[in-house]
Design brief:
390 residues; Arc Repressor Mutant, subunit A; 3 domains; 4-stranded antiparallel beta sheet
Length: 390
């Protein structure tokens, strides 16, 4: 073609068309398989607001091009079928519908128009190189690298969304099972109704396609609920172990006690390895002894530790509003663990309120672990016990 026109027949120039033309000139000339380019674009089509029917029309246009490769040093890949021929290959699609899909492909910069002076599509032979007027498919080759980058990003996003959805589905299943089991062993605890409601609502939400943001929010809610279940079961086991100790003269009771100790020990080891799970109550009480000096009765459950922390927090100069905020962000049990750990090194903390505010902010960002806090205290206690006496 002696001259490549910019404008289309009886169609005005627009900024989008000029932008696509400039982008195509900036891309290196590469050789691309036309069907591979179509498959890549199919993955990235949502980014360009293209429908599956738009790609069906593009596939039909590609079928009119005899070569398999596009781009590089080859002449422009221009096809010039009539509207009737295109609609026949589209299984009788109405001509007006076909033109609308082609307009979307042109607006997205996927193909370009190479219109003749009278707007007809044809090829002129003789007197030099053949000159074709119609639809130019070369932008598929020029923008192939862009399509691949967008498709790769969309694949990674979809993969992350699927992993989040799987995790939420598994957590929902666990919550439903915990709610059923909890009603059997602790029927008076109102927590199980809340857990069951959350599991049912989550099941309903999973029937539709959720965004990554929605899945992350849902996963956070389920993690908090699972922590509450853990605290409830751990408190129940602590009470059972305490009651079983009063009948230690019976052989089978001793066996049960030893068995439960093994279970608790296994749970402590698992909690020490997984900082996303809260530590067991027994581990907290063994590490934090200062808070136990504020009560004459032994602490045997999470409820007891929480009530005691509510009493002790004002004595430490912590405002009630700040304490309530911390409990709402961390949960009552985790807030009690934090307060107990603070008492162990209270002399080193200049501003308890400022310290708690910083922890509350970290907790809201998911960057705080009370398990790591307890582990740090235990490690410091071991180091201190190994130091030689002066």
């Amino acid at each position: 073609m002696e001259y490549t026109p910019v404008t289309s027949f009886r169609r005005p120039i627009c900024a989008v068309m000029l932008k696509h033309r400039a982008t195509a000139r900036m891309q290196p000339a590469v050789l691309v398989n036309k069907w591979e380019a179509l498959r890549t674009l199919a993955v990235a089509r949502q980014h360009f607001a293209l429908s599956d029917r738009d790609l069906s029309v593009l596939q039909t246009l590609l079928s009119f091009y005899p070569e398999t490769e596009l781009g590089a040093d080859q002449p422009p890949a221009v096809v010039y079928p009539s509207n009737k021929a295109i609609c026949e290959r589209l299984n009788g699609m109405p001509c007006s519908t076909m033109r609308r899909h082609i307009a979307r492909l042109v607006d997205a910069g996927i193909i370009a128009r190479r219109d003749s002076p009278n707007g007809k599509r044809y090829v002129r032979r003789g007197g030099g190189p053949d000159t074709a007027f119609g639809f130019d498919l070369t932008p598929l080759a020029y923008r192939h690298a862009e399509f691949e980058a967008i498709a790769s990003t969309l694949r990674e996003t979809e993969s992350r969304r699927k992993r989040l959805r799987e995790a939420v589905s598994l957590m929902r299943r666990d919550l439903a099972g915990f709610a059923e089991y909890g009603v059997e062993i602790m029927p008076d605890l109102p927590l199980w109704d809340q857990i069951d409601d959350l599991a049912r609502l989550t099941s309903r939400d999973l029937r539709r396609k959720l965004s990554i943001e929605e899945l992350v929010s849902l996963k956070t809610k389920l993690q908090t609920a699972l922590q509450q279940v853990h605290f409830a079961f751990d408190g129940a086991e602590s009470v059972e172990v305490s009651n079983s100790g009063t009948h230690s003269e019976q052989h089978h009771q001793n066996t049960n006690k030893e068995y439960k100790k093994e279970i608790l020990r296994d749970k402590e080891e698992s909690a020490a390895q997984d900082e996303s799970m809260p530590p067991p109550l027994r581990l907290v009480l063994e590490t934090c002894k200062e808070i136990q000096s504020f009560t004459a009765e032994p602490i045997t459950s999470w409820e007891g530790l929480i009530c005691l922390s509510d009493t002790v927090s004002p004595m430490m100069g912590i405002a009630p509003a700040l304490w309530k905020k911390l409990q709402s962000q961390m949960g009552h049990a985790q807030a009690a663990i934090v307060l107990s750990a603070m008492l162990e090194r209270f002399g080193d903390i200049r501003s308890p309120s400022g310290y708690l505010t910083a922890l509350a902010q970290r907790a809201s960002q998911g960057a705080f672990s009370c398990t790591a806090m307890i582990r740090g205290l235990r490690a410091a206690e071991k180091v201190h016990s190994c130091e030689p006496a002066s």
